[in-house]
């Protein structure tokens, strides 16, 4: 007995639907597989990039240390000579501060001078040796190209603005 046409069409439709269902499921599976493969690739790539970056950082660090060592070696003599020069300048300055009152062109009596060193070098009690103090002078001595420090500028301004006072403490 032959299969009725409607049944044949229905069977063809069912078979077509089953075939389409399998293709769709296969596409879903393939899509999920591609998604998983992409995720694994991204994880691998991130790990590889991290490793490469770490290697680059280590190489850069080694190069920097090598360059620093080379610079130190080539500049050590100049650095030492600069340190010696600076030290000599400091010693010369300190000696000059102590000797200034005894030089021929010093305008005050050396007996009126007291060395304090910081923040100014000398305090002069003008006339102290004669028994009559005419004034008090703060002196900062500079040698070479040295300049006054911030603290010394502040002391200078306090004196110029007459912000100077007397305090007597009894213990």
Structural features, described:
This protein is mainly α and 171 residues long. The chain has 2 domains: 1-101; 107-160, no CATH class. Helices cover 62% and strands 8% of the residues. It contains 2 helices and 3 strands; from the N terminus they run H-E-E-E-H. Strands 1-2-3 form a 3-stranded antiparallel sheet, with no helix packed on it. Strand 2 and strand 3 form a beta hairpin. It is rod-shaped and about 150 Å long. The relative contact order is 0.05. The model has no long low-confidence stretch (mean pLDDT 89).
- Principal-axes shape call: rod-shaped
Number of domains: 2
Strand content: 5-15%
Helix/strand/pairing category? mainly alpha
Please give the radius of gyration in angstroms.
46 Å
Mean pLDDT: 89
Please give the count of helices.
2
How many β strands by DSSP?
Answer: 3
Contiguous uncertain segments of 5+ residues: none
Terminal Cα separation, in Å?
137 Å
Order of helices and strands: HEEEH
Please give the oligomerization state of what you see: single chain
Strand order of the largest sheet: 1-2-3
Q: Biggest β-sheet, characterized?
A: 3 strands, antiparallel
Helix content: 55-70%
């Amino acid at each position: 007995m032959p299969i009725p046409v409607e049944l044949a069409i229905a069977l063809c439709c069912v078979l077509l639907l089953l075939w389409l269902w399998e293709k769709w499921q296969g596409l879903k599976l393939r899509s999920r597989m591609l998604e998983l493969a992409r995720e694994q690739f991204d994880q691998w790539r991130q790990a590889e990039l991290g490793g490469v970056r770490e290697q680059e950082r280590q190489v850069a660090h080694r190069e920097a240390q090598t360059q620093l060592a080379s610079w130190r070696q080539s500049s050590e003599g100049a650095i030492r000579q600069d340190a010696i020069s600076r030290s000599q300048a400091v010693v010369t300055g300190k000696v000059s501060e102590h000797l200034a009152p005894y030089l021929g062109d010093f305008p005050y009596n050396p007996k009126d001078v007291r060395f304090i060193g910081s923040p100014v070098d000398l305090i002069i009690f003008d006339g102290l040796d004669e028994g009559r103090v005419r004034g008090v002078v703060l002196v900062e001595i500079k040698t070479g190209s040295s300049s006054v420090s911030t603290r010394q500028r502040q002391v200078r301004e306090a004196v110029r603005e007459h912000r100077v006072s007397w305090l007597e403490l009894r213990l």
